[in-house]
Amino acid sequence: MRAALMQIDVHPDESVDSRRSRVADLVRAQSGADLVVLPELWPTGAFAYDLWEDTAEPLDGPTATAMSGAARDAGVWLHAGSIVEREATGPGSAEGPGRPGRMFNTSLVFGPDGELRRTYRKIHRFGFDEGEAVVMGGGEQIATAATAHGTLGLATCYDLRFPEQFRLLVDAGAELLVIPAGWPARRREHWLLLARARAVESQAFVLACCSAGTHAGVEQAGHSLVVDPWGEVLAEGGTDEEVLVVDIDPGQVAKVRADFPVLRDRLLGLPVPPRR
């Protein structure tokens, strides 16, 4: 299986429409890959809160339309990173139109036929009572996507800090954990460490795709990486825009889990001791 992680530079001088068109062409250029992965919120930027209201779109909006066509043209599975999704508005009343729907940080997975196969609304929102944590609604369920190359477990950026979510993804059959992100450069070491930790504890491949450059004054970590089920880094990007291409064997997941069956020794349902 050939995976291509596209570390997109979300430059503030490039319009959303221009970037959308450019990225679609980059996806089409990966026609030899099996799976292509884009970063979190690459159309606008993961920290560009002031743009979200005006650029939010439905699941059949311009970004989904462009990515559907690109996936179909390239004949690839495409994890199109995430978009600012605008939930469908409610019905209006005699006094006027309904309220605008809530916004979500939503990942989109397209099949090689261009069909939208799976969506995932980010569960853990970053910001500590500011930014995304306030502006966005939170997802309420984990998501996996069955592909011809294995089952994808979907998570986004800040989710990486919460191992409980990845345990649930493993229980749901995930073999390749796909994590688009807009992770800041000042916490790059956390990004690298947590990506490897999730691979080791889940005995799964981790494909972690971060954006590059600087937007909304926040320098991005870059350093997209692919980690195998034993925790070995198979490929790692730098800080500039690039496409990271790596060949992996999804069958390695079953082998590692059989040879070193740590997951069967999990102890669940232990009582929580009282605080002293």
Automatic annotation (TrEMBL):
CN hydrolase domain segment(s): 1-250
Protein name (Swiss-Prot/TrEMBL): Hydrolase
One MF annotation (Gene Ontology) recorded for this entry: hydrolase activity
Similarity field: Belongs to the carbon-nitrogen hydrolase superfamily. NIT1/NIT2 family.
InterPro entries attached to this UniProt entry: C-N_Hydrolase (IPR003010), C-N_Hydrolase_sf (IPR036526), UPF0012_CS (IPR001110)
Pfam families associated with the record: CN_hydrolase
Parts of the chain that traverse the membrane: none
PANTHER family: DEAMINATED GLUTATHIONE AMIDASE, NITRILASE-RELATED
